[in-house]
Amino acid sequence: YKILNMQYIPPELREDNGEIEAAMTNKLPFLIEKADIKGDLHLHTSWSDGLNDIEEMAQAAIRKGYKYIAITDHSRSLAIAKGLSIERLEQQKTYINELNKQYEELKILSGVEMDILQDARLDYPDEVLEQCDVVIASIHTGLRQEKEKIQARIEAALKNPHVNILAHPTGRILGRRKPYIVNFDWLFDLAQKEGKILEINSSPDRLDLNADYAKKAALDYNIPIAINTDAHDVLRLDDIEYGILTARRGWLSSKNIINTQELNSLKKMLKRG
Q1: Alpha-carbon distance 164 to 157, whole Å?
Q2: Residue 77 and residue 122: Cα distance in Å, rounded?
Q3: Is the pLDDT of residue 273 over 50?
Q4: Rounded to whole angstroms, how far apart are CA atoms 107 and 119?
Q5: How far apart are CA 84 and CA 81, in angstroms?
Q6: Which of 45, 52, 171, 209 is deepest in the core (most CB within 10 A)?
Q7: What is the mean pLDDT of residues 45-49?
Q8: What does the pLDDT look like over 82-93, one tens digit per residue?
Q9: Which of 101, 89, 159 is nearest to 131 (CA)?
Q10: d(Cα 138, Cα 260) in Å, to the nearest integer?
């Protein structure tokens, strides 16, 4: 590299995708690193279909050096995942508020992973969503609907002022389920206009957004990205490394990722600061 007077090309970028030309002109980004991540904004607990309770997830996050986490258990319509009724969600928020008094090094945000229903309704009314610190919207059912219906569901969620993040935006499960049908230029344009965040889901079953879509969303549309694990137990918090690698393959730096921000900045980006 010194002989050729070019930047070092990280292994994740070596895909003949313009990285050589960028390196020759000193335009390669400084890629995101594991140490940049300050928290995880998509976690499940034993309140819904997770294996560990909130305290165990919090302690695991502290061991990782995180400054914050968001508890985002499933919403009420996803009965198979023991989705939370409105009453249970309110109970959980109260419980999290009490837990936060015990932790100086970690802030626990109260949130929800809310289903976008098959008729494009959202699983909770606005007066419930506005009480959450983080609202993640996602599609779990009706994934084989035609494109127009899928896009109407996504549009309803992203136009809701209380929704922050669209989770696993293509709906794929590697080796088991193909993505749902959606026009991604349309999706990115909508997310940009509505000021929403898109997720890189770090689960090795998903890796969704993939590197190409993440690159296009972040670099072409300037959409903030959240690298989350969707962890259902403490061990899966370590899956964050796969999301980071995906982001690095997508040429992303820490400035493109919202959960590299300090808590106060994060809250402002979530429009709840």
Answers
A1: 9
A2: 10
A3: no
A4: 35
A5: 9
A6: 209
A7: 97
A8: 999 999 999 999
A9: 89
A10: 22
